[in-house]
Amino acid sequence: MESSRILIIGGTGYxxxxxxxxxxxxxxPTFVLVRESTASNPEKAQLxxxxxxxxxxxxxxxxxxxxxxxxxxxxxxxxxCTVGRVQIxxxxxxxKAIKEVGTIKRFLPSEFGxxxxxEIGLEPVKSMYQLKAKIRWTIEAEGIPYTFISSNYxxxxxxxxxxxxxxxxxxxxxxxxxxNGNAKAVFVVEDDVATYTIKAVDDPRTLNKTLYMRxxxxxxxxxxxxxxxxxxxxxxxxxxxxxxxxxxxxIQETEDFLLSLYHSTFVEGNQTNFEIGPxxxxxxxxxxxxxxxxxxxxxxxxx
Length: 303
Fold this sequence. Notes:
Layout: E1 6-9, H1 16-25, E2 30-34, H2 42-54, E3 57-60, H3 66-73, E4 78-81, H4 91-101, E5 106-108, H5 125-141, E6 147-150, E7 153-154, H6 155-158, E8 174-178, E9 184-188, H7 190-201, E10 209-212, E11 219-221, H8 222-233, E12 238-242, H9 244-254, H10 257-267, E13 280-282, H11 283-286, H12 295-298
Parallel strand pairs: 1-2, 1-4, 2-3, 4-5, 6-10, 7-9, 8-12, 10-13
Antiparallel strand pairs: 9-11
């Protein structure tokens, strides 16, 4: 079977760059939508050069320029969107364009996070979940073939801080833990998120379903995550537990997005407190041949 041609919207963003590289590495003719201004950013310009060297085709356009979006979508079979949360609502333009083009075999909207179809979370994260859910309902209502990707936490964003705000490397003396630290979360290394995503693109088993990424070794509570780190450095950290009521009060006072996200996952356990139903599939079960990176292995780089 011929590999689908894939357009990535948001390909120079955080997870988009991994997905673009995985797409071309897996033999898909790969296109990345690039706005004109992107090349003036030195870091992004370097990334675009690396894309071209890999054989990725750069297509000029943007979500705001509907004609350019339409022309880009006409080039491909599959559209993957990886834009950040400030651009989530712009995906209604993609839906409109896909509907107009009429030949797209699969659309993967910008999810790449937590489950959104349940009524969960406190503001401000709640509004983001609701907007993502609205995107999902619109895709379904328009009859567009889809796969929704629920990849849970990117390891690079959430593991180095051990589930705390404001840290870029694991602490070596004290750790602040929200709630009792026992709720299970899921952490997936970015390369693995990209690999599973691209594998799902042409897979009939993921058509019109949600692909959940739950690598068994990476389903960890914050207490377990801290324990892994303590074993690495041979030291017990001082642990400060913040009661849930205090966490909620802080969220209400500050409207801190990250804190509301952490409450949803590290306190309420919203990544793992449900069974995957018939409208979903789990990535490591579908693709056992992928050797994913465990969080235990991932932490070695910080020792």
